[in-house]
Specification:
The complex is a heterodimer of chains A (140) and B (365). By secondary structure, chain A is an alpha/beta fold. In chain A, 40% of the residues lie in helices and 19% in strands. Chain A has helices spanning 12-23, 37-47, 63-73, 88-96, 111-119, 121-124; strands at 3-8, 28-34, 51-55, 79-83, 101-104. In chain A, helix 2 runs parallel beside helix 3. Chain B folds into three domains: 8-112, Rossmann fold (3-Layer(aba) Sandwich); 142-218; 219-365, Heat Shock Protein 90, CATH 3.30.565. In chain B, 53% of the residues lie in helices and 20% in strands. Chain B is built from ten helices and twelve strands. Chain B has helices at 16-26, 39-48, 65-74, 91-99, 114-182, 190-217, 220-225, 227-242, 259-280, 325-336; strands at residues 8-12, 32-36, 51-57, 82-87, 105-109, 245-250, 284-293, 296-303, 310-311, 314-315, 339-345, 348-356. In chain B, the strands form three sheets. Chain B has a five-stranded parallel beta sheet, sandwiched between helices. A five-stranded mixed beta sheet of chain B has the order 6-7-8-12-11, with helices on one face. In chain B, strand 6 (245-250), helix 9 (259-280) and strand 7 form a beta-alpha-beta unit. In chain B, helix 5 (114-182) crosses helix 10. Chain B is elongated, with a radius of gyration of 32 Å. The relative contact order of chain B is 0.07. Classes of the chains: A alpha/beta (140), B alpha/beta (365). The A-B interface holds A 9-11, 13-14, 16-18, 20-21, 24, 56-57, 62, 64, 82, 84-85, 87, 89-90, 93, 105-109, 111-112 and B 164-165, 168-173, 175-180, 182-183, 203-204, 207-208, 211, 220-221, 224-225, 229, 232-233, 236. The structure holds adenosine-5'-triphosphate and magnesium ion (MG).
């Protein structure tokens, strides 16, 4: 079972790069894309992604608010906030809203490793047993 | 017809004949003449219309001229109205006249010399008109500068957002692509890997520079998560760029405030820190934001620098320099109904802004 990503960013350019980066891993796939928070929430409910990559500044509700609403629906799904404005304060707010980690857009290199760490060791190996609800194991 | 606006002149006398005489004398001034037969009637007019000059007989039944003047002066709105008494000269009257400390007062004795009365009324009428013009002009200028400040904020916000939306994604994409390449360094020759490494550094520098520009233009966290994180982030960046050590103390219970209050307070802090860096020579600065009383916030920025310029020990007047910083702060605060206080000595400068807020700011003081 591949890990399914929902990517949310109002820039097509950023989504494209994210696709390239994430799809380099054969076990990862992009199940949906959204350019704003509201659409992201809708897709989040419909598609049940395993991981969400979320922009912070978007038209309409921002990434932190989107994360808050997502974690009300499914708190176990890891959310990565992908932002140009990474700062300790933003990170604290983001974590309070249920974001699992914050990655700076200007230094996106650590993202892949961070996601691997979030998914845990079981996830980076080809799944032996059914992990349909792969998020569950990482709650809390 | 004169171009300038007419002002109202109130004539008070219990004798209709005298009122007609004054009217005849003052007609050629071209102002609005209003007649009142008693002190009560006069007060009535004063409450309803904006009066420039009151011309009154000292001796009237019921309410005499001095009593009426006392009543007029008690009312804060009327303290600046010019009063001209008309009376036969009594020494006691002159003494009483001298007792009037506030507002313009003049005296004319009977028999009234028409030219003299006209001249005196004209002076006060012109004064009133000029004062009114100045007040209007002041109001206009004030609202213009408030509008300009708001436009400047808006413009800066827009440019910062454009930077974020157009260049931000480009840098993010570049950074991610470089990241992808970096994972393949084994496949690249050492020279190519080196160039890639340099590219990475360039992207990082580019992003840092743009980040600084954009943060100075408009704090990115202000709209999204609020004033306090935005100030903290700004203070950190400022400390890094200026090597001034900044101590930040913010009461967390302040929470979110209306957007125009948040941006104004942020700009006040920003201007103050800029001044600390440019003028004070101080190596430290402290920012303190806390509720000072119910529905009021105090913003304090302090340095340990050389203080504001003084001439012979006296602080130079704020109007004597062409800086926009402090004056802009003052205007912003006036617009919010707040105040700005500056304490400066050779041991440093403290700028204290008091900002009224609508939500209760009760704190366990
Ligand atoms: N913290 C400070 N320490 C010492 N002097 C100060 C300080 N803040 C302001 N001043 C003095 O007060 C003057 C007025 O400051 P203001 O911010 O209004 O203008 P400016 O900084 O000169 O110009 P601008 O802010 O428009 O770029 C300054 O020129 C400086 O002489
Ligand atoms: Mg200044």
């Amino acid at each position: 079972m591949r890990t399914r990503f929902l990517i949310v960013d109002d820039s097509e350019l950023v989504r494209k790069s994210l696709r390239t980066v994430l799809q380099a891993n054969p076990d990862w796939e992009i199940c949906g894309e959204a350019a704003d928070g509201e659409t992201a929430l809708k897709l989040f409910r419909e598609l049940h992604p395993n991981v969400v990559i979320l922009d912070f500044q978007m038209p309409g509700i921002n990434g932190i608010e989107t994360a808050r609403r997502m974690s009300e629906v499914a708190p176990a799904v890891p959310i990565v906030l992908f932002t140009q404005h990474a700062s300790p304060d933003l990170e604290r707010h983001a974590r309070e809203a249920g974001v699992r980690s914050v990655v700076s857009k200007t230094n996106a290199f650590p993202m892949v490793g961070m996601i691997e760490a979030l998914l845990g060791p079981a996830e980076s190996e080809p799944a032996a047993e059914g992990s349909a609800d792969s998020g569950k194991g990482h709650a809390g | 017809m004169r171009e300038q606006e007419k002002v109202n002149i109130l004539m008070v006398d219990d004798q209709p004949g005298k009122l007609l005489t004054y009217e005849a004398i003052l007609n050629e001034l071209g102002e609005n003449l209003i007649k009142a037969r008693s002190g009560k009637e006069a007060l009535d007019h004063l409450l309803r219309t904006d009066i420039a000059v009151v011309l009154m007989d000292v001796s009237m039944p019921e309410l005499d001229g001095f009593q009426l003047a006392d009543m007029i002066r008690q009312h804060p709105r009327f303290q600046k109205i010019a009063i001209i008494f008309i009376s036969a000269v009594h020494l006691t009257d002159l003494d009483r006249l001298n007792a009037y400390q506030r507002g313009a007062v003049d005296y004319i004795s009977v028999p009234v010399v028409p030219e003299l009365l006209r001249a005196k009324v004209r002076v006060f009428a012109d004064l009133h008109r000029k004062t009114q013009q100045l007040e209007t002009l002041n109001r206009d200028l004030r609202s213009l500068s408030a509008r300009l400040l708001a436009m400047q904020d808006e413009e800066r916000r827009r440019i910062a957002r454009d930077l974020h939306d157009s260049i931000g994604p480009l840098i993010a994409a570049l950074s991610m692509n470089n990241g992808m390449l970096a994972q393949q360094t084994k496949k690249l020759g050492p020279d190519v890997a080196d160039v890639l490494q340099q590219n990475n550094q360039l992207v990082e520098q580019l992003s840092k520079d743009i980040r600084t520009i954009s943060h100075l233009l408009h704090p990115p966290l202000l709209d999204e998560i609020g004033l306090l994180p935005a100030i903290k982030m700004f203070a950190e960046g400022f400390a890094e760029r200026s090597s001034v050590k900044v101590d930040v103390e913010l009461s967390p219970e302040i929470g979110r405030l209306p957007p125009h209050v948040e941006i104004s307070v942020f700009r006040v802090v920003q201007e103050c820190l800029t001044n600390v860096y440019r003028h004070s020579g101080s190596k430290t600065a402290s920012i303190k934001i806390a509720p000072s009383q119910d529905k009021q916030l105090t913003v304090q920025v302090r340095d340990e620098g050389k203080g504001m310029p003084r001439t012979n020990g006296v602080p130079s007047s704020p109007g004597s320099n062409h800086g926009v910083g402090l004056r802009g702060m003052r205007e912003r605060l006036r617009e919010l109904g707040g105040t700005l206080e500056i304490k400066s000595s050779e041991n440093g400068t403290t700028v204290i802004a008091a900002v009224p807020v609508t939500k209760p700011m009760v704190k366990n003081i």
